[in-house]
C-alpha cells in the first residue's frame, strides 16, 4: 500500500461524492425547473428521457476515448462540465438554453460515471481487496446532501441559480484540485488475461455474451432503484393512505439505508465473498418489494422501502467490480459497456411501473421489479472471482485483485 493509492482512493471518493450532490440537485428540483422554463407536462418526459439517453452515448464515447487517454483525464474534465451544466440549468431563461444545458449534463454524466467506475475498478485491483462499495457510499452521501440542499432551496423559495451557484463554487475547484491525485492503476500481471483475449475474438461479440449477465443485473437493479425514486411517495400516499408529509419520507429512508449498506458492504465482501453478498442483497431487495406490495398501511410500506435500500445498494458496485474481474485486460471497455445498462434500467423502470399501475394496480406493479431483482440470483456466479468455464471452451483466467501499472486497453 502506498500514499499514491491512498490519495487516489480519497480523491476518487470525493469525485463520487460531488457527483451525488450534483445529480440530486438536478432531479429533486425538476418541478422548479419545469416552472422556470414553462415546460409542459407533455414535453417534460422527453426532456427527462433525453438525459439518460445522452448519458448512454457519453458512456459509449468514453469507451473509445480511453483507448487514447487515461480514464483519469476523462474524469478530470467531465466533472467540471457536469457542474457547469447544472449551473446552466439554473441560470438559463429560454427553452433552448435548458435543452443545451441538459444535453451537456447528460453527455458529461455518461463520461463521468464510466470513468469514475473505471478508476474504482482499477484501484480495487491494486488494493487487492473490496473497496468499490465505499466509493458508491460516498455517492449516496452526496445524494443525501444534495437532496437536503434542494429541500432548503425549495422551502425558502430560492431561485434555482441561487441554490446551485454556491454548490458549484465550492465543488468545482475542490474536484479539479482533487483530480491531481487520481490514479490509473491495476493492469493484470503479464500473461494474465491472454486466454480472455482469445475468448473475446476479433469482433468482440463474445465479450458482450460474457458480459450480458452483468448487464442484465445492472438494468434490473436500476429498474428497482428508479421504482423507489419515482413512485415511493405516490405509492405511500395514494395506495397506503399516508399523509403528504409522510409520503416524502420513504426516499430519504431509502437513501440513508443505501448509504449504511454501502458503508459496511466492503467488509461483507471481504468476509463472505461477492457472490454471497450479491445473493443476500437480491433476497433482501426482493423481500422489500414483497413487503411494499402487500403492506396494509404506511408504516409497513416504510419497512419495505428500508429493506429495498439495504438490498439494492450492494448490487451495482459489485456488478462494476465483477466486470473488471471478468476482463482484467480490458476492464475499461467492460465498465463503459456495462454502464450503459445503468441508463437502460433508469429509462425502463419508471414508465414500466407507471403503465402497470394504471392498467392493473400499483401493488401488482411492485411485483415486477421484485421478480427482476430476484433474477440476479440466477446470475450470481458471474460475480465469482475464481476460474470458470464459459462459452467457446475457453477457461476464464484467474482474476484476483492483483496487479500494478497504468490502466490501459
From TrEMBL:
Limits of the Major facilitator superfamily (MFS) profile domain: 211-409
Membrane topology annotation: Multi-pass membrane protein
Region (Disordered): 390-409
Keywords for the protein's UniProt record, in alphabetical order: Membrane, Transmembrane, Transmembrane helix
Database matches in PROSITE patterns: MFS (PS50850)
Pfam families with a match to the protein in the record: MFS_1 (PF07690)
Domain of life: Bacteria
Bias type Basic and acidic residues, positions: 392-401
Record field: transmembrane: 12-30, 42-62, 74-92, 131-152, 158-183, 204-223, 272-293, 299-323, 335-354, 360-380
Places the protein is found: Cell membrane
Protein name as annotated: MFS transporter
Organism: Streptomyces bluensis
Amino acid at each position: 500500500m502506498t500514499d499514491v493509492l491512498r490519495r487516489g482512493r480519497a480523491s476518487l471518493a470525493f469525485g463520487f461524492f460531488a457527483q451525488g450532490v450534483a445529480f440530486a440537485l438536478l432531479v429533486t428540483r425538476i418541478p422548479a425547473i419545469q416552472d422556470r422554463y414553462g415546460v409542459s407536462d407533455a414535453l417534460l418526459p422527453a426532456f427527462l428521457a433525453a438525459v439518460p439517453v445522452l448519458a448512454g452515448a457519453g458512456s459509449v464515447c468514453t469507451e473509445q476515448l480511453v483507448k487514447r487517454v487515461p480514464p483519469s483525464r476523462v474524469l478530470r474534465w467531465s466533472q467540471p462540465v457536469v457542474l457547469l451544466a447544472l449551473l446552466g440549468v439554473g441560470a438559463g431563461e429560454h427553452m433552448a438554453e435548458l435543452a443545451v444545458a441538459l444535453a451537456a449534463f447528460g453527455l458529461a454524466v455518461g463520461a463521468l460515471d464510466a470513468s469514475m467506475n473505471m478508476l474504482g475498478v482499477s484501484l480495487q485491483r491494486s488494493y487487492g481487496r473490496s473497496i468499490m462499495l465505499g466509493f458508491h457510499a460516498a455517492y449516496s452521501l452526496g445524494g443525501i446532501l444534495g437532496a437536503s440542499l434542494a429541500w432548503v432551496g425549495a422551502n425558502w423559495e430560492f431561485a434555482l441559480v441561487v441554490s446551485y451557484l454556491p454548490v458549484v463554487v465550492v465543488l468545482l475547484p475542490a474536484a479539479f484540485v482533487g483530480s491531481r491525485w487520481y490514479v490509473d492503476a491495476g493492469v493484470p500481471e503479464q500473461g494474465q488475461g491472454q486466454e480472455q483475449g482469445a475468448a473475446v475474438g476479433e469482433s468482440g461479440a463474445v465479450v458482450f455474451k460474457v458480459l450480458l449477465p452483468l448487464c442484465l443485473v445492472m438494468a434490473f437493479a436500476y429498474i428497482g432503484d428508479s421504482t423507489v425514486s419515482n413512485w415511493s411517495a405516490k405509492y405511500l400516499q395514494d395506495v397506503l393512505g399516508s399523509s403528504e408529509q409522510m409520503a416524502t419520507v420513504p426516499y430519504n429512508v431509502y437513501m440513508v439505508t443505501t448509504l449504511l449498506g454501502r458503508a459496511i458492504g466492503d467488509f461483507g465482501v471481504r468476509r463472505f465473498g461477492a457472490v454471497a453478498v450479491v445473493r443476500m442483497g437480491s433476497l433482501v431487495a426482493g423481500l422489500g418489494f414483497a413487503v411494499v406490495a402487500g403492506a396494509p398501511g404506511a408504516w409497513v410500506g416504510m419497512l419495505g422501502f428500508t429493506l429495498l435500500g439495504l438490498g439494492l445498494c450492494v448490487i451495482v458496485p459489485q456488478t462494476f467490480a465483477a466486470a473488471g474481474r471478468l476482463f482484467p485486460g480490458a476492464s475499461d471497455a467492460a465498465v463503459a459497456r456495462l454502464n450503459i445498462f445503468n441508463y437502460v434500467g433508469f429509462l425502463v423502470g419508471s414508465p414500466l411501473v407507471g403503465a402497470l399501475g394504471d392498467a392493473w394496480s400499483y401493488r401488482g406493479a411492485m411485483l415486477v421489479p421484485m421478480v427482476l431483482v430476484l433474477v440476479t440470483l440466477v446470475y450470481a456466479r458471474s460475480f465469482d472471482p475464481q476460474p470458470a468455464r464459459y462459452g467457446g471452451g475457453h477457461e476464464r483466467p484467474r482474476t484476483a485483485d492483483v496487479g500494478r501499472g497504468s490502466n490501459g486497453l
